[in-house]
Amino acid sequence: MPDSYKKRTLEEKNEGKRFFRSDIKNRFAQRLEEAMAGEANLSFAQKCGISEATIRKYKKGETTPNLEILESIAKVSGKAIQWLIGVESETVKVKTPISENITYIEKFNVIASAGGGAYIDTEVVAELYPFSLEFLKRHRLSHADLCIIEARGDSMEPTLSSGDDLIIERKEFTAHKVLQGIHVISIDGELKVKRLEFDLVKDGYSIISDNHLYQEDFIERKDLNCMRIIGEVVMILGKPPKGLPELH
């Protein structure tokens, strides 16, 4: 394995657990403080249906809410979701009005390469896509674990095409947990969309491009700390690809 695969800082390892969130926390904390307009933490938290301790964590920038709680905060404060996450309304597109039966999945302006690899430049919300809670439940998905990013390149053709919006289920990964299927992975700061297959004999993962013009890679179990699993591709917006469910 190339030496470049083995170069990871402690910061990169820690950030892997909260991928996409670090860019939002500080801005949300500032906007929440403004939205509360001096109201006591306990009073505001009760109106939102959450604990006072949770509000304190939000204001300190220690964590961020899922979109269900974000909707509650928006209703109570009278502020728009896009304003609360720190982006001006003309920048972030919200596809439909807030509804009790609708939740939103964030699309980030990062690109996962279905090719040679795309570097992560920024991690901010570009759009909010509405989804029926019933639809997500039917597919055994939790909106808090989902995000949307764009694929770029042709290495996963015909399964994925350049420009496809991928619904990613974010998940924790350890060397002892076997993964199969198409995943977004990060190696040396590059996001890639690849098919992972565990090889019991070789004790590691084959990193496969569905386009046979691209060479297959392999990473041994002992080197898995060099590869960060961002999440599994569970759906593609707007088309019925091979090997993945169609979005209805």
From TrEMBL:
Is the Transcription keyword given for this protein? yes
| Any GO BP | proteolysis
A cellular component annotation (GO) from this entry: membrane
- Which N-terminal stretch is annotated as signal sequence? none
Which Pfam families did the record assign? HTH_3, Peptidase_S24
**In its keyword annotation, does this UniProt entry include RNA-binding?**
no
UniProt cross-references to PROSITE patterns, sorted A to Z: HTH_CROC1, SPASE_I_1
Supply the name of the protein: Putative Prophage transcriptional regulator
